[in-house]
Amino acid sequence: MALKYTYNRRLAEAVWWNLLLLTIGGFLLATGVQAVAAPHNFLTGGMLGAALLVWYATQLFSVPIWYLALCLPICVWGWFFVGRRFLLYTTYGTLCTSLFGMLINFQIPVENTFYAAVLAGVLNGAAACIMLRTLGSAGGTDIVAVALKKRWNIPIGQFSFTFNACLFMVGGFLFDLDMVIVSTIMVFISANTLDYVLGLFNQRKMVLIISDHGEEISEGIIASERFGATMLRGKGAYSGSDREILLTVTSNVALKRLEYLVFSIDPRALFIVENTFYVSGGQFARD
Predict the structure, then answer these.
(1) Who has greater pLDDT, 203 or 222?
(2) Cβ atoms within 10 Å of 178's Cβ, excluding its own
């Protein structure tokens, strides 16, 4: 388990791995904007949304060029306020997104506006998730948000919400209400896709086992599954007798084996399973 953790940590910090994920994420993000959002006149959030807004208003150059023009000054500014490694990876992610955006000259053939909003939201959310799995980001407002968090402890989510709210208010003067609502749906789907996909990488099952044979069950878990377990002491509210409560974290694949192990030792045990959004540390690799 320690070797697996070490390998995962080395992989997460490897330069080639971070560049690969940033490249894939940049391609998906550029596809979502250039092939879906821009042809349907959607307004996205973040600096890409600002680039789209400028392009809609001026019809000059292209969205990738405006995105690059808006992000590069922020990257220069961020050199003095955020970590250099984060900024270098983020600059690469920005360049990838802009380059792919310049190369993508096709439109995904989705005619229905609502379906297009769903597709763009999924692509943008998946791209943001992949890029957040690296030591950098997609750039733009992410750099400002990190700098404000470090300097004045302003929550990243609060800054992003405020920026996007202002962006959509300005967009309300350029687009009709229907298009603003559809764009809001797209951003909502993007945010939920990001949370869902990000959770898939680290989602585990937390299991509570209440039994009179806690020691025997914990030995069985350590011997056969190697999850590790924590023994808690409890007391029955009705009986007043002492109880042993085991706390362990497992995967979806091994959950059924764990249940079989517990009930083979104590058929009267209470087996409680809870979904966890994020697990990191211990025998599980940190991102």
Answers:
(1) 222
(2) 9
Number of domains present in the structure of the chain: 2
Cβ neighbours, 10 Å, residue 69? 13
3-state helix, strand, coil in the chain (%, to 5): 65, 10, 25
Looking at 186, 201, 216, the residue that finishes a domain is 201
Average pLDDT over residues 155-162: 69
Residues 224, 177 share a domain: no
The pLDDT, as a whole number, for residue 282 is 54
Q: Name the band, by pLDDT with cuts 50, 70 and 90, for residue 225.
A: low
CA angle 221, 227, 232 (to 5 degrees): 70
Q: What is the largest CA-CA distance in the chain?
A: 77
Using CA atoms, how far apart are residues 268 and 210, in angstroms rounded to an integer? 9
Domain that holds residue 269: 203-276
State which of 144, 167, 201 marks the end of a domain. 201
